[in-house]
Amino acid sequence: MRAFAELFAALDRTPRTAEKVAALTEYFRATPPADAAWALWFLSGQRLKRAVKTRHLREWVAAEAGLPLWLVEESYDHVGDLAETLALLLPPNPAPAPPALAELVRDFLLPLADAPESRQRELLRAAWARLDTPQRFLWHKLITGGFRVGVSRALLVRALAALAGVEPSVMLHRLQGHWQPTAEGFAGVLAGVATADAPARPYPFFLASPLEGGPTELGDATDWLVEWKWDGIRAQLLRRAGQTVVWSRGEEMVTESFPEIAAAARALPDGTVLDGELLAWRGEGPLPFAELQRRLNRRAPNAALRAAVPVVFMAYDILEAEGTDLRARPLADRREVLARVLETARLQPGYFTPRTKSRPGGAAVCGRLETFYREKPVTHRRAGPRSVEFPGQGSATARAEAAPVQAELFGDEGVHSLPAEFPLRFSPALSAANWTDVAAWREQARAAGAEGLMLKRRDSAYGAGRQRGAWWKWKVTPFTCDAVLVSAQSGHGRRATLFTDYTFAVWRGAELVPVARAYSGLTDAEIDAVDRFVRANTTGRHGPVRTVKPELVFELAFEGIAASPRHQAGLALRFPRIARWRHDKPASEADKLETLQRLAGTTRGA
Amino acid sequence: MPGAGGFPTGPPRAFDTSARACNLPRMLSVTEAGLHCAAGDFYIDPWRPVARALITHAHSDHARPGSAAYWCAAPGEAVLRVRLGSAAAITGLAYGERRTLNGVTVSFHPAGHVLGSAQIRLEHRGEVWVVSGDYKTQTDPTCAAFEPVRCHAFVTESTFGLPVYRWREPGLVFGEIHDWWRRNRDAGRVSVLFAYSLGKAQRLLAGLDGNLGPVLLHAAAREFLPAYRAAGIALPEVPPATKENVRAVGPGALVIAPPATEGAAWRASLGDPATAFVSGWMQLRGPRRRRGAEAGFVLSDHADWPGLLDAIAATGAERVLVTHGAAGPLVRWLKETGREAAALATRFGAAEESE
């Protein structure tokens, strides 16, 4: 624990990545593998299930420090970080004797899990007796399960790659998925030894960079694959050794939350890895992201939830087929393989029984997937109120004029009307002869329920992490509204002592209704100014939240808006953030709820 | 009422009448100009110009220019003059020396905050009040140590009035600073300590181990050195922290500079220095990281939580009035432990600069 605390201090001390990597490399080199394994496990964001209630932690620390609980709460309110607050409140330890990290985990942390309260308290007191203040801070982080310390995965990968003498991309791959935080597991990471969990290990995701400005500098438009940028959860679907695993980009194993995807994946041949997007989907298009979140938050969803929020896996790419790594092959080739694999899977008997007959000629269609386009308007099927409408354009004719090119996939059925029963979909390519066509597609992204376009070089390999050049995301211009700051809460980490988490409201008649919370978008100087405003204009306190005089107006940008009965305003904004401070506007001139409702009525949400 | 020199006249108007502000009978009231003693007809650390100002210490949120007459503790006279200019009418009183102003007996007592800092004792018709200004109970070789003064009512600061603030021994902190300095020196880098120009900079200068390398001091802190020497505080001779001097000394140099100096251009002019803030606020990770410095050293000229409680207890005061800082929690704590306490709204501590 001493070495781990010193590593943490070294990482915390310097903003320089080279120094951080050096500190990590030295730590992993010099530390016994059993300790290094746990350090790597925690630093890479893995965590144990929280075993101790934070309420108990606060009470026990209060007792230990001889303080009333309210003063612990006041202190937490001021510090903003519970692990740190509690470490600072405990009486200093005159004679710390820290155990090694692996020992701390084995003897103190893991036994907390199933222990009764009284035993938990004993374990905590025993651990406190061994640790000094900075070590207690880390110990509390381990207990409360929020170990975010400003060490990115990229830095860990660089340090370990340097130590193992391999390329960072190789190390990144070894670190994917669940490896065991044991001396053997750590040795395996360094040596690249195949372990029992290798079949469940995903590939590193290849990430697109935002396209600032236009695409014209990218050369010939026909060299690029144009797709919708779907707004769901990026995921990898692995079918290996008779098992299916779904990984989210956040490296959560989410297989259990999406049983219909896992069931459908049984139709894939062994040794298949797909890259795609999990989307809540009904009929012809995606449901708002908030709906998908309901699924993500629930392991083993019941039938009612599965019916209320159907999901699909929209496949972009295939990374492995028949057990062979395809990532170095050109994207165009991979997409052909992908189309074939998906279509074969869809027609597999036995594994998956569609409720309706599959369409005839499916296998033949897939060969034409990316080439079969016709210059005619999309004939979206109307499936009740969720049918796709283009804002401000009433008829198919008008749409055809506005959009020079329209996709037509799978014969005369739009892609949105693929049989709903088979949830592994092929993310369609959008045909474009030039950048004007591409721009026209982007204009329609919102209507299609997408947040923009993906542009991928047709000859691109599937890289690792965010490498600029081959893949771009070209998002739609965000929506904006002017809203009033109505309450604030202090942030976390480096913003812990500042009010940085804001709630914004718009007018419903003479009343302000909260519509969004936003954290980012202001400069440090503006954050300081808002912080001062909040402190000077507090009208009420509700736990950590302070309501303020409704006076400051901010322009919010957001990617989508949808009706949501679970929100007070009846609306949910997607990715709201602060675009600018409207010093020029009084609160009375902020936007009205009706305006936002109209906006929600004209968009597919997401 | 003050009438001389065109200063505010008439009865003082209550400045803060909110329920949390204290009702201050007889001895003191908070007016638009500051903390006012009506019976004695003087102000303590006023924020507007007045006829007679008693000053606890020379930090800018307590010592503002423009008043007709200033009284302060004698060891702080020269320092206060640097702040207020040579034309200011300043009277220095030895610690403990008693004077009477309109029937109110006043005296200055060491507060341990910075050179010349004082608690001001007021006695009127047998009732004794002490206004502490800013204070600390830790040892500091550059100023007289805090002396508890028995009183009926004690006006205390609460800058660090939460139990998460508990200082370590200054010797340990200097040890950390020395380790950091040594590491930077060995890595071929200049070290910069950001510290307030009056008090903290001189305290660092007195405590740093000059054998590790040359120390350079920013002009804003240097201007107080003659006042320190005049008060008999031994401080080493150090060159000014000009670009040229730092370059000439090279890696291994340690520069003490005010936080306001922190800026890209100035930093660049020193090469690629390692930087650290020296302040009680550095106790918390959030502010430490927000300042963007590589290190933060917890060395404060204010009392920590145990220091505040000890100081309050030592006065024997029945009533405690809590000014700038975390007044709310401290007031509640004092009430729950059997004292009469209330918050007192002032304009002290507005610019965290005294820390």
What does this structure look like?
The complex is a heterodimer of chains A (606) and B (355). Chain A has three domains: 2-144, DNA ligase i, domain 1 (Orthogonal Bundle), CATH 1.10.3260; 211-475, D-amino Acid Aminotransferase, Chain A, domain 1 (2-Layer Sandwich), CATH 3.30.470.30; 479-601, OB fold (Dihydrolipoamide Acetyltransferase, E2P), CATH 2.40.50. Helix content of chain A is 35%, strand content 21%. Chain A has 21 helices and 22 strands. In chain A, a hairpin with an 8-residue loop joins strand 14 and strand 15. Mean pLDDT of chain B is 87; it is low at 1-24. Chain B folds into two domains: 4-164 and 302-354, 4-Layer Sandwich (Metallo-beta-lactamase, Chain A); 170-297, Metallo-hydrolase/oxidoreductase (Rossmann fold, 3-Layer(aba) Sandwich). With 355 residues, chain B is an alpha/beta fold. Chain A binds chain B through residues 12-15, 65, 67-68, 70-71, 74-75, 78-81, 84-85, 88-89, 92, 150, 493-498, 524, and chain B through 162-166, 283-287, 289-290, 292, 294-295, 326, 328-329, 332-333, 336.
Short descriptors:
heterodimer, A: 606 residues, alpha+beta, DNA ligase i, domain 1, D-amino Acid Aminotransferase, Chain A, domain 1, OB fold (Dihydrolipoamide Acetyltransferase, E2P), 3 domains, seven-stranded mixed sheet, seven-stranded antiparallel sheet, 21 helices, 35% helix, 21% strand, B: 355 residues, alpha/beta, Metallo-beta-lactamase, Chain A, Rossmann fold, 2 domains, six-stranded mixed sheet, 10 helices, 18 strands, globular, disordered N terminus
